[in-house]
Amino acid sequence: MGIVSPGFRRKRRDEDVELPPGQYLTEDFPVLSAGPTPNIPLDRWQFTISSEIGQEYRWTWDELLELPAEEPTVDIHCVTKWSKLGTTWRGVSLDLLMEDVETTADYALVHSYGGYTTNLPLEDLLDGKAWVVYEFEGSELAPQHGGPARLLVPHLYFWKSAKWVRGIQLQEFDEPGFWESVGYNNYGDPWREQRYAGD
Amino acid sequence: MTQDYQDGNALAGPLAELFAVDVTAASGRCVSCGHTGRVADLRVYAQAPGWVARCPGCEHVMLRLVRSPDAAWLDLQGTLSLRVPLPPS
After folding, report:
1. How far apart are the first and last CA of chain A?
2. Are the beta carbons of B69 and A1 separated by less than 8 Å?
3. Among B45, B50, B73, whose Cβ lies nearest the Cβ of A35?
4. Is the whole model's pTM more than 0.90, yes or no?
5. Is it the case that residue B3 has pLDDT exceeding 80?
6. B26/chain A closest Cα distance in angstroms
7. Which residue from A minimizes the CA distance to B71?
8. Domain tally for chain B?
């Protein structure tokens, strides 16, 4: 598993598409979940970024929707080996959400409604690489896919794109999340096939 | 809440790789709410990167199991104790 192997090519529409190693193409959208789908009333929904010194930056649902939105079209890669190409989302860039956050932290621990967590370096959330999204293909994000809002970090395996996102804790130390603490790779780069610890 | 789980019997196969006894026949105690019941009655979410078994009383995660090509990771920190029935010694 530790050997880096080149991606292989598949035809999609009229263009060549390169998939990460070990992945196959799917046109549907499989639902993976480690627990019950939480019911989150929008008038109680909040998203919070907490700095390493305890400072909190908080958005209500209405405040999130008032922020300038982006519509990224990205490929997504699940560690269970399916890849879905050209998915279009609508949401707010983490660059914008982090704009006023004062931090020197290097790591982020993402929390979800329902208790799920996932960790990643803070730099992987910045520079146009991550969003909090609330629409998928022009419709509101369905609960089974993480609605009302989920994290989208498409350059890493999709378990990092936490469904039902509730907040991000900025930390000076790296803390393994739900899957990272039980055998999955701490970083999860699909192009280096970092599925499991040690890959 | 949607019900997208199976019962704990879904763990029989993957746990048989690790244990000589049928762990689904054991009784487990939830570290969160104290609920005690058969592993077979846990709520297992298997449409995931691993198996996640939750307490039927409070939904707390009692067991996680991940199988890679060459190893298994088992987390039981949500299970306070397991009573495993055995033949008389």
Report:
1. 5
2. yes
3. B45
4. yes
5. no
6. 22
7. A183
8. 1
Average pLDDT over residues B44-64: 97
- Residue A113: inside a domain, yes or no? yes
Say if A4 falls within a structural domain: no
Q: How many domains, in total, are found in chain A?
A: 1
B49 contacts A79? CB cut-off 8 A: yes
Give me the pLDDT at residue A8, please.
44
Calpha distance A192→A7 (Å, rounded): 9
In a domain, A6, yes or no: no
Residue B1 covered by a domain: no
Q: What are the CA-CA distances from residue A34 to residues A42, A96, A141, B23, B61 (Å)?
A: 22, 30, 18, 21, 9
- The verdict on residue B89 lying in a domain is no
Contact between B12 and B22 (Cβ < 8 Å): yes
Residue ranges making up the domain that contains A118: 22-28+45-192
Q: B65 in a domain, yes or no?
A: yes
The one-character DSSP state at B47 is S
B38 has pLDDT over 70: yes
Residue ranges of chain A with pLDDT lower than 70?
1-16
Q: What is the complex's ipTM, to 2 decimals?
A: 0.93
